[in-house]
Design a protein that fits this description.
Order of helices and strands: HHHHHHHHHHHHHH
Helix content: over 70%
Largest sheet: none
Shape: globular
Number of helices: 14
Radius of gyration: 21 Å
Distance between the termini: 17 Å
Length: 406
């Protein structure tokens, strides 16, 4: 069996961990920074921070095109350099307008870098271990998400110095850039000497239904991740548990990557995806059902206990489910692409998730405003169920018919 943990793969994993560590060091504290430093209101904070996501989404299709059309190592270095430099921009931003411009533009290299780095990871993996390797690659994201926010909050609580966090993020990103520069990658040109510029250069049309299916799951996590704290406080009566919830979700993600490695190695992508989405559906349903059960006569006396168990238990289940689901869907998309389309395949699955997240944030807020958070979260369960049914009725056979055998 070919070696999975080769030096190039390890370097790309470390670089990806650095990339997401730098990102998550700032994420939980930027709203506080904007409020305390510039006196920004809640709506202004939301507007400033949303620009990052929008720009990342806009850059993803073009980054897939560039990764597939030019030497991937060169594209990777340019993207990582730009990503690291923008952290210095936060240090230099002296007004809210300048900070907004820097933050919005920073989403571009982030969106491009996530596509470039994951595509390079696929290139350095032996073909026989690719499915498994992509699953493990996600561990670097998950570990960063589990560690970096808590570390940043601890540093800030001890120093109350936002600029220190900006410097840390810059140093961590620069470290990742240096590690990625050591990756040895041979550029393999496309066999097609001339290829017309078409939609398929920016979005993998061959895998369109898998992308649509992923939108449903992105929607659910978009609602949950953005309205979790206020729902927990107003509906469940749980305050201050958001950090613990995300920590447990990260643990679930990590465990699923470790446990699902064998299935991915054996090529059981459709099974892994099916198991993941069902586990996630159970997690979302438990999360939403707990307040209802707690208010019933049978559970009234144990309301606090049941809501707490449901709240934190759902985090573990949703993490486990998404941890199985994500690499399986990513592998399915990549297995429907030729070598010179891997960047496009990667950007397509990321775009699908981003669209779902964006719709979840937007529609979740509208539903919560009009009908309350309970309705918004029951909508999550409904959308998740539709995504599960779509997969088993159509998407699974769609992939099996269209996958490319190497």
């Amino acid at each position: 069996m070919e070696r999975l943990w080769n030096s190039n793969y390890c370097k790309v994993m470390i670089a990806n961990f650095s990339l997401f560590t730098a990102f998550y060091l700032l994420t939980p504290l930027l709203p506080l920074y904007l409020h305390e430093t510039f006196g920004a209101t809640k709506d202004v904070i939301g507007l400033v921070l949303s620009g990052y996501t929008i720009t990342a989404l806009l850059f993803r299709p073009f980054s897939g095109y560039f990764v597939d059309s030019f030497p991937r190592k060169t594209v990777l270095m340019v993207c990582f350099t730009a990503f690291a430099i923008f952290f210095a921009g936060y240090l230099a931003a002296s007004t809210l307008l300048v900070f907004t411009i820097v933050r919005t533009l920073h989403g571009g290299p982030f969106g491009a870098l996530t596509v470039a780095n994951s595509t390079v990871a696929i290139d350095v993996l032996p073909s026989s271990r690719r499915n498994e390797g992509i699953g493990y690659y996600g561990l670097s994201n998950n570990i960063a998400m589990a560690i970096a926010p808590s570390f940043a909050i601890f540093i800030y609580s001890q120093t109350h110095n936002f600029h220190l966090l900006f410097w840390l993020a810059l140093l961590v990103a620069t470290f990742g850039l240096i590690i990625d520069s050591k990756v040895k990658l041979t550029y393999r040109a496309s066999k097609e000497t001339k290829r017309k510029l078409s939609l398929d250069r920016f979005f993998l049309k061959r895998g369109w239904l898998i992308g649509v299916n992923m939108v449903f799951f992105g929607f659910c996590f978009g609602v949950l991740s953005n309205y979790l704290a206020i729902y927990g406080k107003q509906v469940m009566g749980i305050t201050g548990g958001t950090g613990t919830w995300f920590m447990l979700c990260s643990i679930g993600l990590i465990l699923s990557r470790l446990q699902g490695g064998k299935a991915l190695r054996q090529g059981r992508l459709t099974q892994n995806a099916g198991e993941g989405m069902v586990i996630s559906l159970v997690g979302y349903t438990i999360f939403i059902l707990m307040p209802t059960l707690g208010n019933s006569q049978f559970f009234t006396c144990h309301f606090s206990l049941f809501t707490t168990i449901g709240y934190y238990g759902s985090a573990l289940l949703i993490g486990l489910g998404n941890g199985h689901l994500w690499p399986a869907f990513q592998n399915m998309m990549i297995n429907m692409a030729h070598h010179n389309e891997r960047g496009t395949a990667n950007s397509t699955i990321l775009i699908s998730w981003d669209i779902g997240m964006g719709l979840g944030i937007l529609l979740g807020g509208i539903l919560a405003e009009l009908y309350g958070y309970a309705v918004a979260f029951w909508t999550v369960a409904g959308v998740n169920l539709v995504g599960v049914l779509l997969y088993f009725v159509r998407s699974q056979s769609f992939f099996l018919q269209r996958q490319i055998k190497e």
